[in-house]
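Hello,

Our lab assistant flagged a job as stuck in the queue for most of the afternoon. It eventually completed. Since we weren't sure the result was trustworthy after the delay, we are filing this so someone can double-check. Below is the sequence as submitted and the structure that was eventually returned. Let us know if re-running is recommended.
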Amino acid sequence: MHDYEVYLLKKKKGIQVGIMNRERRKEILAFLEQNAFLATSSAAKHWRTSESSIRRDFAFFAENGLVRRVQGGVRRLEKAENTSIPLPVRNEFFAEEKRRIAERAAQMLPPEGAVFLHGGSTTQLMTSYLEHGCIVTDSVGICDQLGRKYAGGGGPEVILSGGIFDLKAGVLCGSRAEAMLSQYRADIAFFSTRGLDEEGLLDTNDQVAAILRVMIRRCAKAVLLADHSKFTAFGVARVVAWHEIDTVITRRTEENSEFLDALARRKIEILTV
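-- returned structure --
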């Protein structure tokens, strides 16, 4: 076998391992939503990997404030301690699916005009496609990426809301952010949220939900970017009902197919990747 073929095989294996790791971490968090404790040895057996790999997962979660490490494993944080999943953690989940959703959303960008862009792991991927117009955002990360991209000049006009910085969610929120965003109106708003149910959109706290409501109600077209996991996720704060959403961009799966058909019957545009 030639050296280049060996390189390609190693690269492919590395990509596959990376995807497996992200899926495992997502499943571990889902397990801890229903169970208070997870042992290192049990996790290693269930996910058919080494205990050292599981310990790295646990360390990653603990560093991001998602679990408490204890002897022999990890314990779930109480709801009051853990209201949202930090952005660095969310960036790991379903990365390729989110990239395709962001790419499809970018096709809807107006050549000029104003766009609301709520901070999130999927919307942040849209920065590669933002070239013109005015971007109004609550995300410091989106501003940072655009600043790096257009450091030499050019690019869209960027307006960052004020407010209190949510260290986990990576967005600005609070009454100041709401008041500032209320001064603008956009042609289109792109956003994601923590979870969905039959009534509408849900998020993890009232402040983030309030920011989303301002963006949705002050745009001509509201576009939800939702990876397939959002259809089984839960949030405590109601954002808006489905009648305020115009378009959903997602991946159709066996689990969410019936849900998407119900949304289509409500005259919501469904775009799949």
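-- support follow-up --
The delay was a queue issue, not a problem with the job. The result is valid. The first strand starts at residue 37 and ends at 39. The CA atoms of residues 190 and 247 lie 10 Å apart.
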